[in-house]
Amino acid sequence: QQPVQSPQAVILREGEDAVINCSSSKALYSVHWYRQKHGEAPVFLMILLKGGEQKGHDKISASFNEKKQQSSLYLTASQLSYSGTYFCGTESYNNDMRFGAGTRLTVKP
Amino acid sequence: DTGVSQNPRHKITKRGQNVTFRCDPISEHNRLYWYRQTLGQGPEFLTYFQNEAQLEKSRLLSDRFSAERPKGSFSTLEIQRTEQGDSAMYLCASTLMAQTGAAETQYFGPGTRLLVL
């Protein structure tokens, strides 16, 4: 039931792009994306409610393919502040919520 | 600060003792979640409430764990006869579930870090 995230870890240079994927074996109602810094609670990034929806702010965006039960998070022109662990949370149609194991992103100067 | 508070922030206890954590969600939020997170892992679902009703419990939640949300506002999570494997960060999150069933943002509290010796 836990969604699967890939890759598990990625190292970037400032300015490079990254894609983090999240897939589920269950039909999804929504996908949430969070970033967590070490020692802190997760912080909301965005929620996608409709199949095919793509949302974003700044240089972070995400897409949701409801048919494939997949979501991808796109980070473009990465900044040092993007470093952290990114989690996807998937919500099924009975409103339960499950989180992936996370993708550790490190942005180096 | 997301508006969700948790107390205490840290708890050290001896194996076999009982502990209770409190979560105060954002006041207008009708849904409240409890998660457990261990180092390097994503939040692990424990249970959630819609107002005062506990709608789902994870199978991971043993009979030593109990949660309440008596008035549909704050919630408590109690762990009885703690074991070393219970050591983790316990996170609370709240959200406003609209009548349409559409979920809104989950706001996480800072968590309670439990260490069982």
Short description:
By secondary structure, chain A is mostly beta strands. Helices cover 0% and strands 58% of the residues of chain A.
Annotation keywords:
A: 109 residues; mainly beta; 6-stranded mixed sheet; 0% helix; globular; B: 117 residues; 4-stranded antiparallel sheet
Mean pLDDT over the residues of chain B? 89
Main β-sheet of chain B, in a few words? 7 strands, mixed
How would the global form of chain B be characterised? Answer: globular
Oligomer: heterodimer
Strand content of chain A: over 45%
Structural class of chain B: mainly beta
The radius of gyration over CA of chain B amounts to 14 Å
If you compute it from the alpha carbons, what radius of gyration of chain A comes out, rounded to the nearest whole angstrom?
A: 13 Å
Model regions low in confidence, pLDDT < 50 over at least 5 residues of chain A = none
**What is the number of helical segments of chain B per DSSP (H or I, 4+ residues)?**
0
**Count of separate DSSP helical elements of chain A:** 0
SSE arrangement:
The complex is a heterodimer of chains A (109) and B (117).
Chain A: E1 4-6, E2 9-13, E3 18-23, E4 28-36, E5 43-48, E6 54-57, E7 60-65, E8 70-75, E9 84-92, E10 97-99, E11 103-108
Parallel strand pairs in A: 2-11
Antiparallel strand pairs in A: 1-3, 3-8, 4-5, 4-9, 6-7, 7-8, 9-10, 9-11
Chain B: E1 5-7, E2 10-13, E3 19-24, E4 31-37, E5 44-50, E6 53-57, E7 65-68, E8 75-79, E9 88-95, E10 107-108, E11 112-116
Parallel strand pairs in B: 2-11
Antiparallel strand pairs in B: 1-3, 3-8, 4-5, 4-9, 5-6, 7-8, 9-10, 9-11
